[in-house]
Amino acid sequence: MTRTPHGSRLLATLALAATAAACGVQPDAGANGDTESAAPGGAMEEAAASLPPAIVGRGGPLEGTDLEYVDGDTATTGYLAVPDGPGPFPALVIIHEWDGLQSRVRELADDLADEGYVTLAADLFGGRTGSTPDENRALVAEVNENPDRMIANLNAAVAYLRGREDVTGRVGAMGWCFGGGIALSFGLDGDNHEATAIFYGRLLDDPEVLASLDHAVYGTFGELDGGIPPEAVATFEAALDSAGVEHDVHVYDDVGHGFWLRVDEDPATRTAPAADAWARLKAYLDRTLGA
User: Fold this and answer.
1) Which of 242, 246, 262 is nearest to 97 (CA)?
2) Which CATH number is 8-288's, of 3.90.79.10, 3.40.50.1820, 3.40.50.740, 3.10.129.10?
3) Residue 149 is inside which H or E element, if any?
4) What's the DSSP call for residue 184?
5) What does the CA dihedral 135, 141, 147, 152 come to, rounded to 10 degrees?
């Protein structure tokens, strides 16, 4: 099923707004010396052991393959990770941050495959990545110039996954920062899929627009996120309630933007909330996609 689009303006607004907060650079409470809320050593080690290796800086050698999944576009190269065994498996499209498809997202795709999901890490920047904020903004600006192309890119990713014999047909989309806002846009304007997971991505507060979501939404955010403050998350939740959209949305204390994908930058503060967010995510994906 193809959605009736809300127009390019919606997607472009979410994409452009995501550049206001640089992924992974906002300090957490622990970075300022406040470790009062950090888990004690033994509990932290147990929580860290439950997390995907990629996000604690222990991602192994890549096990997946590069993939050209957009017909006629050889520059766009995603990364495909497939679980062991014959399947069939549910599937995920994961959407990178504002600096492009970097190694950590590829490593996480491998971890998600280990959890039983055929995972395609999409490439929205035509094989390019950024290494500075200015480069990242330039890449996002190119996407904003043609947001319909971004939707087509992600539609192609979903179509590829649904076409595989080892996929059940149920597909979800998930992203971080820039990719989190794009995941929400894609949930509204992309071809039908069954799950949308947002990690500190830009949000909407219009119930009439959000009412077009036909599946439950997951969201994880940080209290100290200067770009997406708790008040914005509360407004988003209220709009979802008004629209009748089921959701599991949570704001974690003492952490900022980018905390989940890079737990290793401040493990004392980030490990416990990241572990809780991971447990919630697994439960959400099991409900919406089936493991």
Assistant:
1) 262
2) 3.40.50.1820
3) helix 147-162
4) H
5) -20
CB neighbour class for 235 (10 Å; exposed up to 12, middle 13-18, buried from 19): middle
Tell me which residue of 284, 225, 279, 213 sits closest to 252, measured CA to CA: 225
pTM of the model: 0.90
For residue 191, the 8-state DSSP code is S
pLDDT at 225 over 50: yes
- What does the pLDDT read at residue 23? 59
Domain boundaries, the chain: 8-288
Cβ-based neighbour number of residue 287 at 10 Å: 16
User: Which residue in this structure is represented by tokens 């991971």?
Assistant: 278
Q: What is the pLDDT of residue 41?
A: 65
For residue 80, is it left (φ>0), alpha (ψ between -120 and 50) or beta?
Answer: beta
* pLDDT, position 16: 44
Nearest CA to 55 among 10, 97, 6? 97
E-only strand ranges, 3-157: 65-67, 78-81, 89-95, 118-121
